[in-house]
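Researcher: I'd like a structural prediction for the single chain below. Treat it as a standalone chain; there are no partners to consider.
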Amino acid sequence: MIRALARVTALAVAALLLFALQQTTPGYSEITGPITQHGVAGTTTNARGFTLRVEKVVLAERLRWQAFGRSYDRDTGGLWAVAVVEVEGTPATTALSGATWLAASGLRFEASERAESFRGFLRGRRLEPGLPQRGLLIFEIGRDAARNGALLVSMSRWPRLDTQLRITIPDERIEQAETLDLETLT
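Model: Treating it as a single chain, here is the predicted structure.
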């Protein structure tokens, strides 16, 4: 009788232990997710394949620029967040494919493709070692996502087991404009 009770108790303890292990084991996406490297706007932050320094972010209602002999004028239902950055590929040629604005609420806004024709647009552009490039990462964000945000920047659009920079943007690095001429930033 005592032996049977001991077996049942051992079996119950083992089942509870296995249940606890199952509930606390991270999921596949967490295990293989990005390796976050934290930084702050105004300082240079290093990733595995590039370095990045965010100079400032300008929030605007409208954007203007010239490209291909034509004027472009874009507005949005929220705000444009234009990050002025300097980036360099290290130690080999690379490109920034992942650029996301992370709002304090957790909402994510991918870099806008509506301004890709601007010559200073950096997402997807080739980056060479030893040749830093100054350019822009442009996002369309909600009005409530403008403050206390961060930039998530990586070589891959969905980084797995690779570096993703998380650059916090303090309020003193944020400027505002009604209409922003992109030519004045590069």
